[in-house]
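Researcher: Let's do a round of design. I'm pasting the structure tokens now; please hold your answer until I've finished.
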């Protein structure tokens, strides 16, 4: 984040900035509301702020308002998949879904991802860069402006590993739920992680009310390691302990995600091991039939196999659902719209490589 990222600032920081520009504290509050609650398109619209201040802001703190560069709309259920171009030319995907319990937006937290999960389209080009808090917020704001209805849920489940972009993620969570902003209840916010253990402990200590979803995808170290490089860094035992700590500290029930990959992690043995792992834990398990990615050879299990998998888990007393597939017709796995539009690898700024998971998260 740079000093110029005005939409990434907390209210007290906006007030500080306004003071520096010679304004009063109440004008700081007004500016924050223009940025986050009323979401003005330009500083000129902020008519209760002095003209000179508006001009100075305009010159030094460019407003970020994203417009969709591409949009796919599902004929089946109205799901909308957006592609946004960021000021440096990077692209991110975000999705709007309509549910009976309220409309939900899924955002990306990074341009690309360095976690390298085998079945994931977003991992293919590697990490390009972290998104700032304002770039995460603007995905939600831009979609709200486009759709025109209330967004009640936000999930950080698009491209990127949110806990690999920890400080920006925290700002995003606090700002999107802020009472002077869009005020999305933290209980309606879900962050999905592949399991960066030290950051799970950190998040648990923030005392937020968000839901944490852990990408499990295998019930043993061997199975997880086959699909997720991060599993070589942190054992299943360490990850589960961190999730238990998250639950104890926040009293928020954990969600576990399990992408069902045909012939890889959908056998009877897998069911047994998964049930054994989750039994006695107050949690919810979400099964996601894998979305085939054209660069990868993974396939979905037959519907019958997935149904049986779920029924068996229920018999073991596990609280389990199969994720309803939204926007099946526009789909392709998450990350593919971005890939389709992206410049060839060698033209990408920063090289776009798959980098080893380093010590950075320590
Ligand atoms: N980095 C975060 C968010 C990733 S996307 C994480 O790892 O949790 C959200 C979920 O979708 C994760 O569980 C991810 O493993 C899963 N996923 C990614 N690609 C998929 C695909 N092609 N089919 C099904 N699930 C997929």
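Researcher: That's everything. Go ahead.
Model: Designed sequence:
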């Amino acid at each position: 984040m740079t000093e110029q990222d005005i939409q990434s600032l907390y209210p007290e920081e906006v007030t500080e900035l306004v003071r520096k520009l010679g304004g009063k504290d109440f004008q700081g509050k007004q500016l924050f509301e223009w940025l986050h609650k009323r979401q003005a398109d330009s500083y000129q619209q902020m008519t209760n702020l002095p003209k000179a201040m508006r001009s100075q802001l305009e010159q030094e703190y460019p407003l970020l308002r994203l417009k969709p560069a591409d949009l796919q709309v599902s004929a089946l259920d109205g799901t909308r998949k957006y592609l946004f171009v960021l000021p440096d030319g990077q692209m991110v995907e975000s999705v709007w879904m309509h549910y009976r319990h309220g409309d939900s937006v899924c955002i990306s937290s990074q341009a690309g991802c360095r976690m390298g999960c085998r079945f994931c389209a977003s991992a293919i080009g590697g990490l390009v860069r972290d998104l700032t808090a304002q770039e995460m917020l603007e995905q939600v704001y831009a979609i709200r402006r486009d759709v025109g209805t209330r967004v009640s849920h936000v999930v950080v489940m698009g491209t990127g590993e949110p806990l690999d972009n920890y400080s920006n993620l925290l700002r995003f969570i606090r700002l999107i739920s802020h009472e002077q902003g869009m005020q999305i209840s933290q209980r309606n916010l879900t962050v999905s992680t592949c399991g960066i253990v030290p950051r799970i402990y950190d998040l648990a200590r923030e005392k937020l009310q968000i839901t944490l979803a852990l990408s499990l995808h295998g019930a043993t170290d061997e199975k997880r390691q086959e699909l997720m490089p991060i599993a070589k860094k942190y054992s299943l035992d360490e990850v589960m302990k961190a999730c238990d700590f998250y639950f104890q500290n926040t009293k928020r029930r954990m969600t576990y995600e399990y992408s069902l990959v045909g012939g890889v992690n959908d056998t009877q043995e897998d069911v047994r091991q998964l049930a054994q792992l989750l039994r006695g834990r107050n949690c919810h398990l979400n099964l996601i039939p894998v979305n085939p990615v054209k660069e990868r050879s993974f396939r979905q299990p037959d519907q019958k196999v997935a149904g049986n998998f779920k029924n068996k888990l229920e018999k073991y007393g596990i609280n389990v659902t199969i994720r309803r597939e939204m926007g099946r017709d526009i789909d392709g796995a998450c990350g593919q719209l971005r890939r389709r539009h992206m410049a060839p690898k060698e033209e990408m700024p920063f090289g776009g490589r798959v980098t080893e998971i380093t010590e950075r998260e320590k």
